[in-house]
Amino acid sequence: MNNVFYAPKNDFMLDWGGMGLDEAWLQEMEPKINAALAGMKKLDAGEVVNVDEGRMVGHYWLRNSAKAPTAELKAEIDDCLAKIADFTAKVHSGEILSGTGKKFKNVIVAGIGGSSLGPVFVDKALATPEDKMKLYFLDNTDPDGMDKVFRAVKPELEETLTVVISKSGGTIETRNCQEEAKAFYRANGLDFAKFAVCVTGTGSKLYNTAKGEGWIDIFPMWDWVGGRTSVMSAVGLLPLSLKGIDVAAFLKGAADMDELNRADDYLNNPAAIMSLGWYKCSGGKGGETMVVLPYKDSLDLFAKYLQQLVMESLGKELDLEGKTVKQGLAVLGNKGTSDQHSYVQQLVGGPDNVFVTFVQILKDREGASAIVGEGSTSGDYLNAFMLGTKKALESHGKRTMTLTVPCVDAYNVGQLIAIFERSVGIYANLIGINAYHQPAVEFGKKAAGGLIELKNKALEALTDKPVTAAELAATLGAAEEDVFRLMLHASANGAAKMTKCDDITKSVFSK
Fold first, then answer.
1. Catalytic annotation on 445?
2. Which residue of 162, 281, 387, 398 pairs with 355 in a disulfide if CB–CB is 3.0 to 4.6 A?
3. Burial category of 262 from C-beta neighbours within 10 Å (exposed 0-12, middle 13-18, buried 19 and up)
4. What pLDDT does residue 439 have?
5. Residue 345: how many CA atoms within 13 Å on its side-chain side?
6. Strand ranges in 67-141 using DSSP code E only, listed in sequence order
7. What is the pTM of this model?
8. Tell me, what's the pLDDT at 449?
9. Given the DSSP bridges, would you call strands 354-361 and 329-333 parallel, antiparallel or unpaired?
10. Is residue 312 flagged as an active site residue?
11. In the chain, what are the domains?
């Protein structure tokens, strides 16, 4: 097995034998991968590689502040970690109490996208019966979802801390969650400020709100940390530390993996190998689907977390030279062996536009397992199903790689996150794109703002005389479909009246 990378110190293994990286192709790619690794050294050194936004990219410094390019940045990182540790200890001990003098037991985390996906994944992956606090997440501007959280915490609301996370302080979805939480505390006779902290940039709108209202505390977020790589900043570390996770081990796992991924010899650099596998599958042109299959229930949100990390980073219309390239790798996945009974059929027998990354966890559980049949445990079967699926895929010409770690703990979850973060960066260098901005995300936000304005104008224009969406749209000089959809929603929520027709698009609306 010459295509297996193993790091004894980390107890981490990467089997890339199923990716088709033959010796001749690797030699051909050597100048390209060496240039990509040189680019990562510039990033580590603090060069502005997010050129569109004029920013450094420093999430690697978060788990090893000695790598920060200046003493000032190192001090900021160290101070933040010390502040998180101090705050956590005081909350757990009861030195910091709620606005009504109660000890905190729960945490509501309000954030979206990169301010949520990482903490949600790690929260579930590392949950234990011994958790010191329970985390609840407001991660969408969906009233039903918020109400579900509010119902769960209401009996212990006086013992519930809320952490609001927004780097800019201008993220609408997070603002909505914050205002809903504030209204909920107020409706229950509580002063939200005495139950709230935030993670944000100094001087942001959220920062000023928290200062002005006298929130319990404010934790820093820096413009050189992107949302999708922020789980090892206060964004993730504050709620995860409050939960009781060993954040030092989490950071150590990532830092140790980072060191492996800084190796100049690409065949001894697991992230370089992984990114070369991605390049081989896509021809460097994107358009492929990476299926991530962790064979462990606790990792079933890993693929969801990786969707943002990979797809927001690599899904780009333009390259660094401004040429249209339409790059991207799609990510999907769930967990084994659930997928044996869902989309593995298509992975094996369907189009050759996928490659599969297995995540193998060697330890089944704490303690011994019962024999369930054929002299084997449930864990033996889980492992056999993984290996069987791998064989089936490869026998049908599909490409696979396998990451293996001994167990799911803070250290190894840190390792798993870190190898994908670095692979994304190296692959972006290979294909010549900026992995650290997200211009297309702003398109939807701007469109949403315009539609909110249109909704308000449409409601103002309504009278007691019923009108169709087409008539209302003509009055407003707007698209009929937009007005129809907006009024359909408004009428369902009591903001307008609707009289339906068999042809629903001809329905009428009134005040």
1. yes
2. 281
3. middle
4. 87
5. 3
6. 106-110, 134-138
7. 0.95
8. 85
9. unpaired
10. yes
11. 4-45+248-431 (3.40.50.10490), 60-245 (3.40.50.10490), 441-510 (1.10.10.10)
Which residues, other chains included, contact 272 with Cβ-Cβ below 8 Å and sequence gap of 6+? 33, 36, 37, 261, 263, 266, 426
Two tokens, residue 35: 């240039």
Q: Tell me which residue has tokens 């990378």.
A: 5
Cis peptide before 337 (omega within 30 of 0): yes
Phi, psi of 340 (to 5 degrees): -60, -30
* Termini Cα distance of the chain: 73
Closest CA to 77 of 232, 281, 231, 212: 232
Choice among 341, 366, 446, 465 that is catalytic: 341
Q: What digits encode the pLDDT tens for the residues 444-486?
A: 777 888 999 999 999 999 999 999 999 999 999 999 999 999 9
Q: What does the DSSP 8-state code read for residue 102? A: P
Nearby residues of 334 by Cβ (< 8 Å), 6 or more positions away: 293, 300, 303, 342
Nearest to 55 by CA among 229, 232, 221, 223: 223
Q: Residues 158, 173, 180, 312: which is the catalytic one?
A: 312
Tell me the backbone φ, ψ of residue 140, rounded to 5 degrees.
Answer: -160, 155
Cα–Cα distance, 123 to 163 (Å, whole number): 15
Using alpha carbons, select from 133, 77, 69, 128 the residue that is nearest to residue 107: 133
Rounded Cα gap, residues 259 and 253, in angstroms: 10
Radius of gyration of the chain (CA): 25
Tokens of 149: 């959280």
Q: Which of 90, 148, 211, 445 is catalytic?
A: 445
What is the residue-wise DSSP string for 434-488? -TT--HHHHHHHHHHHHHHHHHHHHHHH--SS-EEHHHHHHHHT--HHHHHHHHH
Please write the tens of the pLDDT for every residue from 373-425: 999 999 999 999 999 999 999 999 999 999 999 999 999 999 999 999 999 99
Q: Tens of pLDDT along 11-63?
A: 999 999 999 999 999 999 999 999 999 999 999 999 999 998 999 999 999 99
SS3 of the chain: helix, strand, coil, percent, to 5: 50, 15, 35
CA distances from 475 to 35, 146, 479 (A): 58, 36, 11
How far apart CA 293 and CA 302 sit, in angstroms, is: 9
Residues 6+ apart with CB under 8 A from 91: 104, 133, 161, 242
Distance CA 278, CA 359 (A): 16
Reported residue count of the chain is 511
Q: Which SS3 state, helix, strand or coil, does residue 17 take? A: strand
Q: Is 42 a catalytic residue?
A: no
